[in-house]
Amino acid sequence: MTHFQQIVIIAACALATMITRFLPFFIFSEKRPTPRFIMYLGKALPSAVFGMLVVYCLKNVDVFHGMHGLAEFVSIAVTVLLHLWRRQMLLSIAGGTVCYMILVQFVIT
């Protein structure tokens, strides 16, 4: 790949990133109220993304062999308990991830 092609690709990526970042500010100005559908998406999508993350993480768990998904289910329990306790999604996800990594690396082999 030539230097010109590399520069064009980097410029295209930078432009696409800037468009996706700045476009909402042009579409939804402060003068007009935010549409109800966009408000609904702002409330519904975080939970949907979290649900997809759970499904993705559990898709290869085999409950009939090995430790039967023990590390995964203990980590899910830690994630749920942290979320019920503090109601902070970042803390819940990070806590569950750290719990899973500790279980997989040091406890369950």
Automatic annotation (TrEMBL):
InterPro entries: Brnchd-chn_aa_trnsp_AzlD (IPR008407)
Nucleus in keyword set: no
Membrane-spanning parts: 6-28, 40-58, 64-82, 89-108
Keyword vocabulary terms for this entry: Membrane, Transmembrane, Transmembrane helix
Keyword Endoplasmic reticulum: no
One matching Pfam family: AzlD
Protein name: Branched-chain amino acid transport protein AzlD
